[in-house]
Amino acid sequence: VQLQACGGGLVQAGGSLRLSCAASGNIFSINVMRWYRQAPGKQRELVASITAGGSPTIADSVAGRFTISRDNAKKTVYLQMNSLKPEDTAGYYCNGDLTMYDDSGRYKRGDYWGQGTQVTVSS
Hints:
Number of strands: 11
Order of helices and strands: EEEEEEEEEEE
Distance between the termini: 38 Å
Number of helices: 0
Helix content: under 10%
Largest sheet: 7 strands, mixed
């Protein structure tokens, strides 16, 4: 199972970016999906999460500016980031609670991480 994140980049303050995280592999189901971020010298922060049914939770620090969504058919979760601020600069990582299966038909639920995508907001 792999989580592939993309969409980061350099943007001016006030701009927007849309991050994507696509899951691939022998996936039986995708449960909660999350976006975290971590800036140099700071602790990792949970930015947003979304349940399998599509119920989102957004951190107070980004509420009103960021939205999370998912496309279950595409096995993809999105993070739409608007009105970006320099303090949003960080590496953004997707995380998922997935149930996978192997060639023997066995199922295993686990926690998986994407490789991260860098977001840099200039003032």
